[in-house]
Every structure is written in structure tokens, then in C-alpha cells.
Design goal:
Length: 270
Amino acid sequence: MESFTFPLWEPSGGEASLFVGVDEANLRGAPAADAAVITPLPLGAAVRVLERGKDRQKVGEYVNHWYRVEYMDTKGTPGAGDDAPVSGWLFGNILTPIRIEADLDGDGEQEVATAVMSADFKVRVRVLEPNLKPPHRVSSVDLSPGFLGVAANLVPAKTAGLPLVKVESVAETCANAITAYVSYTVPGNKKGVLGNAKLALELNVMEGTGTSYELSFQPKQKGLTVVWTNTGEDESEQTKAKSRREWYRLEDGVFSKVKPAGSAVAETTP
């Protein structure tokens, strides 16, 4: 699981440890928004940090450092014989350590997903359809505000019924424990078609309230259950736990809450 907050990226030696979090990012010849463009970089491109600009600058609504990075241009060929390093400057808000490559829509092709923090503490998850051309090859979804740090990993289809990008708030930095699941679906699993990134499910727990939950996917039933538990002391200072169960059904990439007829919704245990 990769994660990040709002760090100062450091030179990464001989390895490319960061990725481009937007598509067609302009690699520039100098650390300025109006500097000449060397080449556009695709979403998910691996880069190596060579240098961090001395002072933070404001570009649009973002405040960050510029970073001189190195990108390995593969010339679009599988072999490494004609690979050539290209260096230039990228603004810090588009860099991320989070890159997930998987067949997210079941069409047999590997999509690329990234997650980048926005200026208002939202997380934008982008998914690139690899065999389409820009600018119509990326779908994105914004998650709820409240993230001050992010960790992400892939939930496989055999676990959830479809592949999901799981995005979690970093516990040390957030008052809320937020977990969001993002799906990417294409009608009919057709190749060569841009799908839709969607917020499949979001769960939010306020730290220190005695509330917790346990999530269980049911891939064969195309659904999941969430058992919420609230723990606290009664008037006699005995610990009591109240639980309630929620049911969700998967439809078109989204888990929607349902209430089975006659189901119990709460129970109390000592």
C-alpha cells in the first residue's frame, strides 16, 4: 500500500519513485508555469526527482514547489534499446507515489489509476484507458473532503465482485477515518471505450467516538454488509456495545444501501 500527505519530495537517487498524477502533464524547461514545454507526460508516468525548487510558488489555486525530474522516454517501443532520459520541471501538486495498474473494467487491458490531493483536501482518482488518445482517455472522480493524507491499494474482483481502488485517510493526520472505494466500469466491458470512474462506497468514522465497523464483501451475491458498533459506558460504568447491520447491493459499479424485509437493525451486548 502506497501513501502520502503533503511532503517535500526529495531527490530519489537512481530510482523513479514518483508518478505523474494527471494526464498530458507539461514537462517544462524551467520552474515556471509559462516556461517552454519539453514534452507532455501521460498519467502514471514514472519520474525520478533530481532537484526541488528553493521556494514555494503559487500556480492557479495551488501552492507548491517545482521539481526537476527525469522521465525515461521509451519511444513507444517495448525494448529498452532506444530509451532516452528526458529531464525538466513539474509542479509538485501533480506528483504522487500512488499508481495502480490493473484490469479495472474486465476488458482484458490494464488501466492505470492514480490519486492526487487537491487544494481543498479532496482526493481526485483518475483512471486512464491505455489504448485511447488524449484528451478523451481519462475518467476521474473526486472523493469527499477531509483527507489530509492518503493510502491506496487494489481490492481484487475475487474479493469484492469487481476490482476496486481503495483509498484511505492516513490515521495520524486526520480526525476522521475515511475509506472510499472507487470503481471503473464500461458498459459491456467493451475494449477501446472510455468508462466511468465512480465512488462505489464511502465509510466515515469520527476518531475517539467509540464507533467502529466491519465490512464483508459478498462477491457471489453482488453485495456487501457493514456492521457498525458503538461502544461506551452506561450509567453503572459498564461497557455496552450496540451494533447495527447495513446491507448494500452492487449495481453499475456502485454499492447502494438496501433494507431486507423483516431484518433486525440493532442489538445490544454487554
